[in-house]
Amino acid sequence: MRSASHEPRVDRRCIRGRRLFYCKPKGCSKSASKKVPEVPKFTYREIDISFRQCAYPSAAEILKLSEQINLPPSQIKAEFSKRRHSYRERHHLPKDTLIHPCSMPLFQALVTFVHSQQAILKSAVLFVSVATLWWTHLLRMGGQSITEQIYE
């Protein structure tokens, strides 16, 4: 017997040879897994800015933020805790790692910018030194004109 008695009305289009994966019944149009309702994610710009400055706010900072956003201080502490936790997970840090402003993205962007400026400065210094060497070489030749030296 080809069809299993415990699975009536199974769509057989997906079965080839051995049964490698499950097929849903013909009458069932809903997916096998229920969709989980999305929890609304609130973003607070003030908390984000404050978190970039310091991941561990003082009591005065928490009170100032609670007045600006109209949230209780306990919820603001929870928001900071969530941001610290997601930062540790994103950067694969241990759970007990303290987050310093030096490890924050803004500082890393600043370091990258300064490093790129140093690279530009180094390349400019190299260019000027090569041009100076070339110019001194031209001056030593002295007797010939510059255009004759270039086209030789």
Automatic annotation (TrEMBL):
It comes from the Eukaryota. It holds the Pfam family Homeodomain. One of its GO terms (cellular component) is nucleus. The keyword DNA-binding applies. Keywords: DNA-binding, Homeobox, Nucleus. GO terms for molecular function: DNA binding. The keyword tRNA processing does not apply. Its main location: nucleus. PROSITE patterns: HOMEOBOX_2. InterPro entries: HD, Homeodomain-like_sf. Residues 30-90 form the Homeobox domain. It is found in: Nucleus. CDD domains: homeodomain. This is Homeobox domain-containing protein. It comes from Larinioides sclopetarius. The lineage of its organism: Eukaryota, Metazoa, Ecdysozoa, Arthropoda, Chelicerata.
